Amino acid sequence: MYGITFLLSVFLVSCESEQEAKSSKDYAWKTVEANGFTYKIVENDPSNTRFYELENGLTVILSPSTKEPRIQTLIATKAGSKTDPASHTGLAHYLEHMLFKGTDKFGTLDWEKEKPILEKIESLYEVYNAETDEEKRKEIYREIDLLSGEAAKYAIANEYDRIMAGMGATGTNAFTSVEETVYLEDIPSNAVSKFLTVQAERFRNPVLRLFHTELEAVYEEKNRSIDSDGSKVFETLFSNLFQKHNYGLQTTIGTVEHLKNPSLVEIRKYYETYYVPNNMAIIMSGDFNPDEVIKEIDEAFGYMEAKPVPEYKFELEDEIQSPIKKEVFGPESAEIMMAYRFPGANSENAKLLNLVGDILTNGSAGVIDLNLVKKQRILDAYAFPYVMKDYGALFVGGAPTEGQTLEEVEALLVEQVEKLKKGEFSDDILTAIVNNSKRSNQQSNESYRSRAYKLLSSFILEQDWLASVKEIEWLESITKQDVIDFANKYFNDNYVVVYKRQGENKDVEKVEKPEITPVEINREAQSDFFKEVSAMPEHPIDPVWLDYEKDIDRASTGSYDVLAVENKDNNLFKLHYHFNIGKWDNRLLPMAVNYLEFLGTPTKSAEEISTEFYGLASTYYIDVRDKETIIYFSGLQENFNETVEKFDDLLRNCVVDEEAFKAYIARLKQARENNKENRAIIASGMQNYAIYGENNPFNNALTTEELEELKAEDLVEIIHDMAAYKHNILYYGPKSAKETAEVMKEVHYTPDTFKEYANSKEYIKEQQTDNTVYLTYYDMVQAEIYWLRNGNKFDNAALPTIWAFNNYFGSGMESIVFQTIRESMALAYSSYAQYRTANDLNAHNTFVAYVGTQNDKFDEAVGAMNNLLTELPRSDKAFENAKEGQRKKLATERVTGISIIHNYLNAQRYGRDYDVRKVIYEQLPSLTFEQVNDFYREEVSGKPYTYTIIAGEGKISDNQINALGKVRVLTLEEIFGY
Predict the structure, then answer these.
(1) Number of neighbours of residue 415 by Cβ within 10 angstroms
(2) Does 467 map to a domain?
(3) Is 593 exposed, middle or buried (0-12, 13-18, 19+ CB in 10 A)?
(4) pLDDT tens for residues 30-52?
(5) Rg of the Cα trace of the chain?
């Protein structure tokens, strides 16, 4: 859904190519003319990106590739919360929402009749904002509500989303941050003309229709941010770090007061000021011909006229002379976040800031990683740079372990910064960072999305792409003394620290519910523009299905099977060990693999092992699932052998460390308590309770007494045993299965006899017979309600119907649930419903629905969802559009790399030897609404449900909850099992 990005991750891009060894003179800007257009490129840029500027000033950035027939598109404007008027904060964000409502050509049934009503509504908002008498304001709002209902009769809600879904787009969304607003689409490569036609129209004359219901969605988003301790910490940090700049003076979502008093006049002024071509960019990364696409973009967007854009001027911040300390209270667990202020994106310091962030924490060998995390002196710790146009910041934060105060955490983090200033870090860390940067750049260049976002950062922050391409060279030129000098220049007692303490937030200010009458959403309606776009020709793209016999290379190494897919793009590898054992088999297994992080061998410490892996630019991660465990490796092929050998040595020869075990148990106790203060984790536990009953996978945990009786030897024995279980070896890299098998025979341990897998513990999903309510209290503004019902046993034959049902009914912004709950009734920011298939062939499926809403909307929201779960609204056009959109997505989807092997293993788990997507693609066209409705009646309609509700105590009356079914208040001990 449309939303806010509070933390814009800024990537300083460097790309490795076959010409890596070339000198800096081989990287240079070059101007090229082709087909009547002039563009710039950076010579030897592996992303092959072209930079155009059209006559009207519109920036067009095109990065072509033929890896898969899709395109990631971003349309960006340099207009974020920084440029919001001080009297209307949050304006850029809710303008972003309104850019999905259409124009005078689409989103409307009859513009001539709709227009005068919208003009009256706009005028009434100005009267409403000027009025101070609350009773008169309510009268005006009732008139706005009445007129909005009249205007809605001519509106087609979500027509933009339907248009995009119909052409096979995914990821339809947008976000607003401090510097920018960006509109996202992932489209099939044959939909470029349609996409550009829609986008050019979208920005031509946006109409602010359905405003009061959409503004209510923004209210809900505001309330969600009020319920987020992380958002409160970040806003407090920024308001103290930037006391003169809008980075800190304003928030992206705006104040409650300004949200209550919106001005459509000001929104329109803002749009006309900042949504001009010389302040915007179209970025496309994917499968297209740039010579053809630039011509289409020029024709589509040539109507836009350049205008002067006001420069944001600001007073320089005062130096921070001593730490600024603030407190924030909330129900989530305690933590601290600190920030140091730096110059902006285009200073040399910005690049050094990113480097310093890696030296402090890189997940393996950073100063904080080795001194605090590996030594378990703290529960969690991190550091990361945040680079913006006018300023930057380095964030450093952490959470206390058992018995530790936030002030002690602060002291430990400051101690690490002092070590940086003194040069107390490895001389080899810079070389290791260069190697890891080379690897990460190869990885990110494979992804259309990653490439597009890097280019976006370059545009928004006005950074030179040449410098980005040459980043590796720059990194290689930096010395340890450069880092020390930088650290001593910028790191002093000049930070802001926010102590997030666990406790009641007494400053809660929620947005109250206004009186809103549900509006018509005209599901069957289609504008002439929609029909014209749908009728535009597009060349067919043939789907590509997996053939497991042809697409997977097979070999064996002793007793192991090796499944491989060749990497033809670069010299990176991915290696996975796949075990048929999980936490359902042994609840100590997740604890054991987490303990492994802090263990060494007889010859090496945990810190040395971690540093060695980082030096190899290799990573490993162990994922323990219900019935399987996967060990993930990735890195440079040149270091493949050493990576496997080092991990094998660690797995087989790790030794008990009593001091590390004592610290691990203390941290684990604290983490378990923190989980009980985390709303999302509590909600997950409640859902497990609803699905499986009192004894479920979530609460299958050690009691506190069992935890205290646990021995380090117990966990180390489990780790050693992993090497004795047979597992599949999955490989994606430049070598063949046979070559990999030969290497693995030499470097990967094979026991004389494999241990036998025990029969996995089974949890049986309960079948609901009556409506039941599980309730848990949490200090929050909103209420979160889930509907859960276990359905039929998994059946491959039902998958096409399930796909059609989910996409029509409850998945996505064009779905029935979203349109009804959010667009028509303005009851929630987020709402969905999904029929989720079981995890294996013998288990039952589960239906889940969700609404997050204000407490004063509880009855309406629950009633609205219950109505949808009783009678399936019918829209033949929406149904056909959903099916066609899914077929286009399937036709352009490409399963590649190691995902091919996992797709195969997944198919085996469901008893298939074929790519199920082919069956779904072929059967979707013939599926009728009646068939989907029959499925709905069998699985959804009028059935008993288990509700799980998490809400503030006393915020919802007992009568409201009792009306839903038999109520049981779940304690945290019941949910978590300890």
Answers:
(1) 14
(2) yes
(3) buried
(4) 999 998 999 999 999 999 999 99
(5) 29
